[in-house]
Amino acid sequence: MTTSLQYKGLESTLELADKQRDGIFGTAEKMIQCLKSRNTLRWVAPTGGASVASDARRQFNPHAFAASQETIYILSKEGAGSAAPLTTALTVAIAEAMEERAERSGGRLPKPALFALDEPGQRCSLGRPAGSVQPLRFQGPDRYGHPAVLVSGRRALG
Length: 158
Hints:
- By secondary structure, the protein is mostly helical.
- The chain has three domains: 1-36, no CATH class; 59-107, no CATH class; 114-158, no CATH class.
- Helices cover 45% and strands 9% of the residues.
- It is built from seven helices and four strands.
- It has helices at 2-14, 18-32, 38-44, 62-66, 84-104, 120-123, 139-144, and strands at residues 116-118, 131-133, 148-151, 154-157.
- A two-stranded parallel sheet has the order 1-2. Strands 3-4 form a two-stranded antiparallel ribbon.
- A hairpin with a 2-residue loop joins β3 and β4 (154-157).
- Mean pLDDT is 75; it is low at 132-136 and 146-158.
């Protein structure tokens, strides 16, 4: 079922106007540039010609993580060789898995999830509440329209 949804999504993208389609594929191309780095690729590609299913390394499962009490720290450096697109994808996969778990639990997680993001406006837009760290006070209004930041569910004026 997922494959047919992915196919339909790709098919609808291909049917967009040239400018829109080029913008989508241009963004995708920028996002996969990090896979040119052997250092990054070794973390995400199966080793020794294996498939994902037969790769002997432990695989991260966002749904299993969402059901656990574990903590994850997702880091990536800036600039050339940055794996920021992968850290964004991982963050979104975890957030979506937690949303699905909440939906199955009547709309709420048994314990709230906290996403503390450093400069989320430059990294990703989750479309969900998240704690954020803005290194400069004026970055809040540019991204969120006001100078307040969210700290432990309360507004703290900067």
